[in-house]
Amino acid sequence: MIKCEKKIPSREELWLHGCAKTTETTRRAIQNSKESIAKLSKYYNLNPKTIVKWKKRLFARDADMGPKHARSTVLTLEEEAVIVAFQVRTEEGKLYLFVAIDRTSKFTYVELHNTATKPIAAEFLRNLIKTLPYKIHTILTDNGIQFTNQKRHKYAFKHIFDRVCTDNGIEHRLTKVSHPWTNGQVERMNKTLKNATVKKSVSPATQRASL
């Protein structure tokens, strides 16, 4: 009968990377040696690149695994709330659908209006603020006239939508000028809402919904 003894790894071996071909003792010896790369490579039976790597390092332990910079799973402020307005056709005619999506909680708020004017956009925001059970920090919209002053109106009074944001401590950010609206979450929600509203008879009066 052949008796096999299980080797108990040393403390040094326990801390080594799973694919490591050298120990910390070997690495320190390489770092302190004045022999050539070729001689060290032959002596330790290692690739010359491995010798060079440990020569350059100031430590003998394995480098930390994972990303060098921690990445937070918390969404940025810009991703907290998105508002968009678009036109839909219903049995009652053309109407405008205002949609707000909180990308953190997935809460969606919708209103249907006859027009998409500045006062209506501002009122939509006020209603959204009243409906949400928490504070909105940042809102992202496109560059529509109902949300922001156009360049040709740079000397005009502050936009009413921005005034509502300021009054409620909300930062209003805009998508890049002439940049397509790329938020997939909003696009998917728009498609769902269009299918729900176009196929139903709705009153021209304001319709509100929280999803």
UniProtKB/TrEMBL annotation:
Pfam families per the UniProt record, alphabetical: rve (PF00665)
Signal sequence, renumbered to the chain: none
GO molecular function, one term: nucleic acid binding
InterPro entries for this protein: Integrase_cat-core, Retrotran_Ty1/copia-like, RNaseH-like_sf, RNaseH_sf
Integrase catalytic domain segment(s): 63-211
GO annotation terms (biological process): DNA integration
PANTHER family given in the database record: BLL1855 PROTEIN (PTHR42648:SF12), TRANSPOSASE, PUTATIVE-RELATED (PTHR42648)
Protein name: Transposase, putative
Organism of derivation: Trichonephila clavata (Joro spider)
